[in-house]
Design goal:
With 163 residues, the protein is α/β, with parallel strands linked by helices. It has a single domain, classed as Rossmann fold, CATH 3.40.50. It is 47% helix and 18% strand. It is built from six helices and four strands; from the N terminus they run H-E-H-E-H-E-H-E-H-H. It has helices at 7-10, 31-47, 66-76, 95-112, 128-134, 142-161, and strands at residues 22-27, 55-60, 81-89, 118-125. A four-stranded parallel β-sheet has the order 2-1-3-4, with helices on both faces. Helix 2 (31-47) packs parallel to helix 5 (128-134), helix 2 (31-47) crosses helix 6 and helix 3 packs parallel to helix 4 (95-112).
């Protein structure tokens, strides 16, 4: 795990998720990890006041499909933010590099073209132990951090609209 601590622990100020519609996209591949990321994201949203009816969870096959799903969710225009959760673990072939790079590039492209923030919660680890450590319960959970980033960006965007 990063030695710099958790983004959630370093974040200051209050974030209010009341009335914020959030789409959480979660990859099924490496589901033992991504389900923990999902639990972290949902915990963050609940902690900050999101209503259950304002959070939609969409499952996709793997990290490769996250950008496609994010683009469709953004295009539909029903959510204030998107949180993309996935896990790519290095293997013995170059497959890791292709999938992780395209998930990164694809979600970045969607984020840059969207009026709603798209938070990146895709783990890219050398092994399953690293992935499980980043998906552990608590403030270091990267799903929690991605959801918190999404909420912070919604607040930023709304603040910019009122200036």
């Amino acid at each position: 795990m990063s030695s710099e601590g958790s983004h959630a622990e370093r974040s200051s100020g209050s974030v209010d998720a009341a009335g914020v519609r959030v789409a959480v996209l979660v990859a099924r591949f490496n589901g033992d990890v991504t389900e923990r990321l999902l639990e972290g994201a949902l915990a963050c949203l609940r902690t900050h006041g999101a209503a259950e009816g304002d959070v939609d969870v969409y499952r996709v096959p793997g990290a490769w499909e996250l950008p496609q799903a994010a683009a469709r969710v953004v295009e539909a225009g029903r959510h204030d933010a998107v949180v993309a959760l996935g896990c790519v673990i290095r293997g013995e072939t170059p497959h890791f590099e292709y999938v992780s790079a395209e998930a990164n590039r694809g979600l970045g492209a969607v984020a840059r073209g969207s009026k709603a923030p798209v938070a990146f919660g895709v783990l890219t680890t050398d092994d399953r132990a690293q992935a499980l450590a980043r998906a552990a319960e608590g403030p270091g959970n990267k799903g929690y951090e991605a959801a918190l980033s999404a909420l912070q960006m919604v607040a930023l965007y709304r603040g910019l609209e009122t200036r």
